[in-house]
Amino acid sequence: MMRRINLPGILFLGALAGLWQLAAFLENSPTFPSFVTVIGTLVGNLGVLLNELGHTLLRAVAGFGLALGTMLPLGIFFGRFRILGDIVEPVVELLRPLPPIAVIPVWMIFLGIGDAAKIAVVAYGASFPILINAIDAVRSLHPMLSHVARSLRLTRAERMRLVDLPAALPRIAAGIRLSITISLLLAVVAEMLLSTDGLGAFLIRSQESFRIDDVLAALLLIVLVALVVNITTEAIQSKLLAWHSGSTGVR
Question: What's the whole-model pTM score?
């Protein structure tokens, strides 16, 4: 466990916090709160921030779940049936570079400004890493796996579920981790434009009131939550894909 602790990285973060504190002391400006002040604001407003965080996480989880539940099966399906994958590929490549925030007016027309529109924005942005990684992962599988599946007389559905999904899971997991991070980011951004609650709305209210310490405290909370989510996701992935790490010699 001790070997996993990144001591140089922790010391570097501590040095950055110290530089922040020193710069704020030298600047001595109300628009440049110190690190200690921001920590105090975070602790003092923790109840309010956690309540806003709950709204944000619910939208991020809902959007990510919608993206995962639809794009993962579609990715495996289009990867297995190459002709259908080639048909939808131009549409995917056309929509993929489009920023999710740019489609907010479209979602507002069809879904209003409620939670449905915010979840749709999150799901849209989180879909492409899962879909593209799943398609590429299935297409790059070793041909021997297909021969084995045919020799076992597996149906198409059984082949996708019992062969394609497990074999492609390491690459699919990379897309899922990326989508989780994107989901949290888009949930905050969507709240800044469409919502009256959540961390995004809190950031906008604080900025409009020139409460810079509240803005930085909310941003610090987002960073901490993203760090916890990333560590948790990495731990789950390492446990589920331990067989892959063992077979490739990665530790």
Answer: 0.82
